[in-house]
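Work Package 3 committed the consortium to producing structural models of liganded targets before the mid-term review. Because experimental data for this complex are still outstanding, the team generated a predictive model from sequence and the ligand definition alone, so that downstream docking and mutagenesis planning could proceed in parallel. The input record is reproduced below exactly as it was submitted to the modelling pipeline, together with the SMILES string for flavin-adenine dinucleotide.
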Amino acid sequence: MAEAPSPGAIDRSGLCIGCGACAVQGGGRMEWDEYRQLKPHGPAGWRDTPTPRFAATCPFSPAAADEDAIADARFPSAPVVDARIGRFESAYVGHAAEGDFRAGGSSGGMVSWVAAELLRQGMIDGVAHVVPLPGPGAPHFGYRISRSLEAIAEGARSRYHPVHLAQILDEIRTVPGRYAVVGIPCFLKAVNLARAAEPVFAERIVATLGLFCGHMKSGRLVDSFAWQLAVDPNEVAAVEYRRKDASRPANWYTAHLTLTDGSARWQDWWHLADGDWGAGFFQNSACNACDDVVAETADIAFGDAWVEPYSSDGRGTNVVIVRAPMLLDMLQGAIDKGRLALDPVDADFIAGTQDAGLRHRREGLAYRLTWHRRGITPRKRVAPRAAGIGWRRKLVYRTRAGIAAWSHRVAWVADRLGMPSLYIRWAKASLSLYQALTYSRGRLGAWLDRMERR
Ligand SMILES: Cc1cc2nc3c(=O)[nH]c(=O)nc-3n(C[C@H](O)[C@H](O)[C@H](O)COP(=O)(O)OP(=O)(O)OC[C@H]3O[C@@H](n4cnc5c(N)ncnc54)[C@H](O)[C@@H]3O)c2cc1C
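The resulting structure, written out as tokens with the ligand in place, is given here.
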């Protein structure tokens, strides 16, 4: 018989994303595990006690409402319903035209602009988002409720780093006010499930700003950056995953570390052993069971316009999906005044910017759901299917899952032995295999091409 969902059972089943929504129930707390991921803990017996509240509110619980059910209830009058990007009013490509939002943001600065505009118009008292936490060692980043335009600006940029919602949900519960929450798809699903379970969240969380998501990394990625830049991870005082350079294509990510002595080290992701996002290094295992790329339950969702000519424009460009009518009016007013430079686009355009992510969460997920798994079986909107997927594609999905799982273990061993080179050598070999399979790189890639043509 299937195990009933409890924080421990979800974790043991590889389905805990570490959002912390369960840690606001019955005295829980979030702690770092040996793989630098956040996991829920609590008083004796807490982790393994199934409760109806947990079953209904953990975003990976098979008993919780799915993204379709949440979006149907939240956006009943949305004129467009698309199987890839969900229900929506309108979609756009572009950037924030006023102020420093674009220069300060990861993409076009639209998330920070919308958060700031909600505050300026008096529609919220604070925005829960992720800000740098200065100082050496983990955690580097955490959620904070920002209540001024300056504080919102401090949070701009993407943090591919474990963070959790427990503290800010506690604060929202305790401090009356109207709040917006910024988050990746599964975190906002958790926020919406919390809203349904506890009226105080429904009343106080008045807007959700979603970030498209490829997958969540563990904190070990920062150690790996440090190892590859020949510095001690304990000397890392600040991290920028994605430093912006307007003179280079937007999709050339640069990782940047500031050290405790004030000096800096940086490297382009493409020169790092684990810098190919698609290879899945340090991916949280729950992401293997995710079917939402574009934050389908968010009032408004934002991503990068990963198609030309936008991906070559180093200043950064957003794609935006508006699902809540209230935000449509706000955006339209600002477009009319030239404060935002946004052009309308359709669902095909948005989906085209997220081709790889959608393939991984549709075809890839269908295939992964056919694999044997222990513990709780996730309930997804995608049916298990192996038929019709070519052997090479299957190998790509297997390799990606293998890299995701083994990167945690190999880096842990390398750390324990004080031998970073062990991890780096393994990562380089794994990356070569992945790139041969995926992009036909090297002699192995050419051989695979010949095999495929036979
Ligand atoms: C883990 C992760 C994976 C992503 N994967 C994709 C992808 O596959 N495809 C794609 O198109 N886009 C992806 N994005 C979104 C993309 O990186 C940008 O965040 C998005 O385009 C918004 O850019 P912006 O310039 O409008 O935001 P900015 O104006 O820079 O503002 C970003 C806002 O998001 C908040 N924030 C940053 N990191 C987090 C976090 N981890 N959790 C919650 N809030 C956070 C910041 O505090 C800030 O308020 C991902 C983001 C994250 C965090």
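Reviewers should note the following from the model. The chain has a mean pLDDT of 96. These observations will guide the Year 2 experiments.
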